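Q: What does the assembled structure look like for these inputs?
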Amino acid sequence: MVTLMVWGLLAWSVTDVREALAVERAEAEETARLLAKLIRAGRLVIDQNQAVIDDPHKGDKGFTPDVFEQQLIEEFRKETTIDLRTLAAAPSSILIPPLAKELLPAFVLASKEVVRDAQVVINQRGIGYKNFIPATYGSQAARRFTSQSRVRLKQTTLQPRNPKNEPDEYETSVLKWLSGRPKAEAYVSELTEEGQTLRVVMPIYYAKDCLKCHGEPKGELDISGYPKEGAHEGDLAGAITVIVPLKAGSR
Amino acid sequence: MGHDDRDSVLTVNRWNPGAGGLSAAPRWALLCVALAGLSLQGCGLVYDALQYVAPVATDELDAICRRQRVQVGMAVEPFRPFVFPAIWTDEGSRVTGLDVELVRHIVDALSQQCGRPVTPVLRLVRFRDLFLHLSEGKLDLFVSAVPSNVPARAWAGFAYSIPYFQHGGLSGITRQPDVAERIRQRFQPPSEASPGMTAGEQVLAGLTVAVQDGTASQHYAVANLKDSRMVLCDSLPAAFESAETSADPGIDVILGARPVLEYMVTRVKKDWQLLARADGKSFFLTRAQYAVVMSEESYRLRWFVNTVIFKLDESGQLERMRARWLDEPYAFPRRAAVEGLPFDVEKMVSQYSQGECRAGRAR
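A:
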């Protein structure tokens, strides 16, 4: 009888741990997915304002951190239906995990800091191309966010222009796998580091606007001095990777 | 030097302890000197007497080592390829160019001299304000394709290093083929009948000439071009904009630093052309060599910078830098990302505007 009870308790606690792990993983995965979508929305906002940013005839572009924030929130809402303005009041759920409620505003803040610091470059009159583009915004925003949080965020690609965006072994294998598949809204999610971290890799695909710098003819130098990759619309451009540490996994 | 850079004369020489710091000096000697000092007040010997026991340790080089930062001024207006416009990179805002590369060499040498890393603090300010900032002690030095041989009051009272760029000089560009042709006809090379070159004032007489405020071109125009109409612009981009968009005052010629103008017409403003002589040779109003500008009293720093430039010259590095920035094909954003320097955003003008042009007085 006693043995049965011990086994029962053991089974119950194992089930409990498994459930906790599953919930934690689901929450971490959703948070990572939302973060990746948020940085993607930020990149889109920069892309939509590129003509204003590069206007040589205008001094003050009016593209302030607050303007950026409003547009970022709107793009993110369109993409996810989550309104970051009311996030704090929204009840926590598997769709908006507590970790996401903490980290999404932190990323918005890091992004605003990047736009704030770039004001001095953006608002130069008489200068056209300023290299404030989706990629350079994304690199800085990801780096700032990562330095202020326990979650690591990074943009990466198989042929990085910035050595700091070089993919690690895991990212390389996922990028190679993704590059052989057609464009899709899918993402890769996996437990890594012996279950201590969860990694989400969300692909980014080349849009038409990207091809001015990354398209044909391959090898020709683009406006910023890098050789064009010869890419086509819809090709895999790279990925946003998010690494979330798991508490349960590190027990 | 700034006020914060000046320590008391009794400061111990931390970088040269063998030279005799306070701790090494016998206390009785110091007392004697102090007593002697009281009796010698006003005769200027106190300073010398104190130096004998505890040599003055704080000069501008020591101050840089102590704070591990060197304050470098640069023009916020682009002087390509010496200073390119500030640009955003993966690492944040950066500035690059030949002058920035020179600053890197100076900073590397400073780090070696100080025995610990020295960081450059780049301050981008209007060219015309660089001299003011240096005299107010806000800068240790500045560099922005500054000619060392401009006879102008505003540029007096400062010290210029040995040249790091030998091929400077004043020249002009135009967008109007008829103006280019008129100047070509006027600018006759020396001949037996007329052994000297035609003077710049004759060549440019009757033309509207744009110059940048506070630069060598303005000083030249004020001193020499009495028969030209002068248009004063806040920057070279402003001169281009004014010449390309407005008819009044119509700008015939933009005067400026020859290597800067050459870079612009060959890579950026290809519908403009450099002025030439009748024999097809380059048009120069005067020659110039570019130097690093420092405070007149910063003797040790000047020796130091001169030595750095001399070594760069001797090793062929200066020539490689020149070829790299003036001859090679490249896109500056990439160089900014790889080797550009960050600048002090807080100290930069809140919003850089290329400014505008207005009618000036030639004389």
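Residues 35 and 53 of chain A are 25 Å apart (CA to CA).
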